[in-house]
């Protein structure tokens, strides 16, 4: 069999996106170059890997099998690279990390400090929403993930390193700005802009209102924290966002936090990987760095302090 690693890599990208165009974008190739690699692979294996129905492409049964094995081959190669890099310690090596879109407000700062400390390390950073992070963990596609509350039904190892309070933001001129202890019920008169489904912030928001039996009106669905902030400023509704995302707008007086009873919703940021995953020396070092120094470097309360605050709040002391 004369299959090349390059053919498998290009095929895997098409299979992952189910799109030749998106695979070409990811690999910085032209679409004809991608098609050519896939055709050559089909020729080598003497099977069809994709079928087209309407405008969409699907994997054939043979395509599913080749995708399964191509992922295993890639993971084995990654592991080999890791084992060889581990021999060099922290002088060289690669860190593949994915963070929730909301965590992108602080993750680059932490990566910057880490990379300055270990300049030989190359980082690949992917920013995506919670749903995609969970898929990447399930597929073993990343070393580490930074996300909100990890799901209980996946076999993961997670360490909380910093608090993540969710707040309600309004435009500066909103009538509720400046009011103290706004009752939760009062929110039923407002319209909320919501993140896309699959967002951790949105899940937390829906769970919180359901637990408190509050029936809010939702307006536009908006696909990013940035767009939510712009829409709130434009007066299209209120937003429920991680406080980490609005620091600049608060400082510039463009948005205000509403002082609603039961708020902020106290969540935490976690560094997560699959249980039993063989972490590279670099990934181990970055995990330790996040857990021991992450919150302090950003000038935020660490998860331990945050958990104490939650306990105190439950007792009614805060
Ligand atoms: P999100 O994730 O950016 O997908 O909303 C943040 C979180 O899990 O809290």
Walk me through this protein's architecture.
43% of the residues lie in helices and 23% in strands. The protein is an alpha/beta fold. Strand 3, helix 5 and strand 4 form a beta-alpha-beta unit. The radius of gyration is 23 Å and the shape is globular. The C terminus is likely disordered.
Briefly summarize what is shown.
The protein is an alpha/beta fold.
Major beta-sheet overview: 9 strands, mixed
The ordered H/E elements are HHHEEHEHEHEEEHEHEHEEHH
Distance between the termini: 68 Å
- What coarse outline follows from CA principal-axis ratios? globular
Task: Give the tally of β-strands.
Answer: 11
Please work out how many helical segments DSSP would assign: 11
Task: Report the average pLDDT across residues.
Answer: 91
Q: Could you estimate the helical fraction of the residues in percent?
A: 40-55%
Estimate what percentage of residues fall within beta strands. 15-25%
Low-pLDDT residue spans: 305-318
Bound molecule types:
2-phosphoglycolic acid
Specify Rg, calculated over alpha carbons. 23 Å
Structural class: alpha/beta
């Amino acid at each position: 069999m004369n299959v090349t690693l390059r053919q498998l890599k290009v095929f895997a990208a098409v299979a992952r996106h189910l799109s030749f165009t998106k695979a070409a974008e990811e690999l910085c190739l032209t679409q004809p170059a991608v098609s050519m690699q896939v055709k050559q692979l089909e020729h080598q294996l003497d099977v069809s890997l994709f079928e087209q129905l309407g405008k969409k492409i699907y994997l054939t049964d043979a395509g599913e099998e080749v995708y399964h094995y191509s992922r295993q081959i890639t993971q084995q190669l990654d592991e080999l690279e890791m084992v060889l890099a581990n021999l060099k310690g922290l002088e060289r090596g690669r860190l593949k990390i994915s963070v929730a879109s909301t965590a992108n407000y602080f993750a680059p700062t932490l990566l910057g400090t880490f990379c300055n400390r270990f300049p030989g390390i190359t980082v690949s950073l992917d920013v995506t929403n919670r749903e995609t992070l969970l898929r990447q963990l399930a597929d073993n596609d990343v070393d580490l993930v930074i996300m909100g509350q990890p799901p209980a039904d996946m076999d993961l190892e997670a360490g909380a390193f910093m608090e993540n309070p969710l707040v309600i933001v309004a435009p500066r001129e909103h009538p509720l700005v400046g009011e103290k202890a706004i009752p939760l019920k009062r929110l039923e008169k407002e319209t909320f802009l919501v993140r896309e489904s699959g967002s951790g912030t949105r899940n937390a928001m829906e769970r919180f209102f359901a637990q408190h039996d509050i029936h809010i009106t939702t307006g536009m669905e908006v696909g990013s924290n940035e767009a939510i902030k712009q829409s709130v400023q434009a007066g299209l509704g209120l937003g429920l966002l991680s406080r980490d995302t609005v620091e600049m707008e608060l400082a510039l007086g463009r948005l205000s936090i509403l002082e609603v009873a039961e708020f902020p919703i106290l969540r935490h940021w976690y560094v997560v990987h699959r249980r039993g995953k063989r972490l590279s020396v670099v990934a181990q070092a970055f995990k330790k760095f996040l857990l021991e120094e992450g919150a302090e470097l950003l000038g935020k309360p660490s998860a331990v302090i945050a958990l104490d605050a939650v306990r105190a709040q439950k007792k009614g002391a805060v």
